[in-house]
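testing teh design pipeline on a random one, pls ignore if ur not involved
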């Protein structure tokens, strides 16, 4: 804004001997700004290089045996993709079976939300191809079981990384995807303190790689992607609205998701990509993530172990806007259905494109202590509560979604309260971990 004002002032300056001095000064200012921008660009590229190419593995066990784990996680080119049989499976999975269906590439398809969204799309007749790198941030066997579930439904998951540009290009060569549902990400607020590089690698570098391939596609797909309620950070105004400030992230995870929103704006502005960001609020339910509190509370309560219950300063309540997975899926599908076409072609923008951000929450924050009480009733087990101060590791005291925009634009209306949702989760958990002697991951 400061430079724009200076330019306007110069445009209207009188033609006097003094004007040369002003232009000379402005020229020096422009040169200084250019060199400053160039310097910080190189710093940013260097940071990406260090964290992307040289960062340690995102595996929690990497400190024990870093080299093999790192190599397995860094292998972007794998033998699991390519060839006539592979292409045949991709095409078959992407086949549209409904009159007004779409062809969707779902990244992070073996993840919690990705599995549910992929299954829902396939059920209604859309063509779906999944992409997942099956990393070991949490128990990969759970992801493999989700994969098997989707394969039975007719969804093929390509094993690969969103940072593998050759793979992404190949997928778009084989299938002209009309939409991308981008759910692949390094999740978790606390893990960012152990392995920050994995967040830059996936949430920033991976997102940029995907957008680069999408902008060159012809036709360009419309993109719906997972941001996070974490972007609200230290914001104290509740409920959180899409218009609220998001410049105070409380964790690196939140910062990378906020960066994703800015990157989305850039690719929309320059290349005409249609982009919709979804800020999820504490998603829970069957086939969930073992690193989430409701999941490991269930595991540890059944084992008779104590569970940590955080409280804020002065015994303040910690609460979350828990949102059941089926409600989140409805919001995701509605976002895909209302996404307008991208306006670019071959990397060139031809007109303004749609850019949206929505909160997807439940609008009913519940204290974590109430969550535990519900689990006690459902599991018929008394929890051993270990009351602890809320650590300064990225967690915030509360989340609360204002969903009026999603209600108006998407017809989004969550319908599952926490106890009803937990009842479905507990039923799945007991069935899943009792079948075949499966054991819940101790991590």
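output:
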């Amino acid at each position: 804004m400061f430079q724009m004002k200076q330019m306007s002032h110069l445009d209207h300056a009188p033609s006097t001997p003094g004007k040369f001095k002003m232009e000379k000064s402005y020229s020096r200012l422009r040169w200084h700004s250019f060199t400053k921008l160039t310097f910080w660009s190189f710093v940013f590229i260097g940071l990406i290089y260090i964290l992307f190419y040289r960062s340690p593995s995102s595996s929690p066990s990497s400190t024990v045996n870093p080299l093999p784990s790192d190599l397995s996680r860094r292998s972007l080119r794998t033998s699991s993709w390519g060839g006539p049989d592979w292409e045949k499976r991709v095409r078959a999975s992407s086949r549209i079976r409904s009159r007004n269906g779409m062809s969707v590439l779902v990244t992070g398809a073996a993840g919690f939300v990705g599995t549910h969204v992929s299954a829902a799309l396939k059920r209604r007749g859309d063509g779906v191809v999944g992409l997942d790198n099956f990393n070991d941030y949490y128990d990969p066997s759970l992801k493999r079981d989700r994969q098997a579930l989707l394969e039975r439904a007719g969804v093929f998951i390509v094993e690969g990384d969103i940072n593998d540009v050759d793979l992404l290009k190949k997928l778009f060569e084989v299938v002209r995807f009309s939409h991308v549902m981008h759910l692949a990400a390094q999740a978790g607020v606390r893990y960012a303190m152990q392995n920050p590089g994995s967040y830059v690698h996936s949430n920033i570098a991976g997102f940029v790689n995907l957008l680069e391939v999408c902008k060159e596609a012809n036709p360009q797909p419309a993109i719906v992607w997972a941001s996070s309620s974490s972007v609200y950070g230290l914001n104290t105004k509740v409920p959180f609205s899409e218009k609220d400030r998001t410049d105070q992230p409380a964790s690196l995870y939140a910062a990378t998701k906020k960066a994703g929103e800015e990157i989305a704006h850039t690719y929309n502005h320059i290349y005409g990509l249609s982009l919709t960001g979804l800020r999820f609020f504490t998603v829970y339910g069957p086939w969930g993530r073992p690193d989430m509190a409701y999941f490991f509370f269930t595991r540890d309560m059944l084992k008779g172990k104590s569970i940590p219950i955080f409280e804020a300063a002065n015994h303040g309540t910690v609460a979350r806007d828990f949102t059941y997975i089926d409600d989140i899926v409805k919001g995701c599908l509605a976002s895909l259905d209302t996404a307008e076409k991208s306006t670019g072609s071959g990397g060139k923008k031809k007109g303004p494109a749609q850019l949206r951000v929505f909160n997807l929450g439940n609008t009913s924050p519940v204290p974590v202590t109430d969550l535990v009480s519900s689990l006690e009733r459902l599991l018929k087990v008394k929890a051993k509560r270990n009351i602890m101060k809320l650590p300064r590791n990225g967690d915030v005291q509360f989340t609360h979604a204002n969903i009026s925009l999603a209600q108006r634009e998407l017809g989004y209306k969550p319908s599952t309260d926490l106890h009803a949702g937990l009842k479905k989760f507990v039923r799945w958990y007991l069935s899943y971990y009792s079948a075949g002697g499966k054991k819940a991951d101790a991590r």
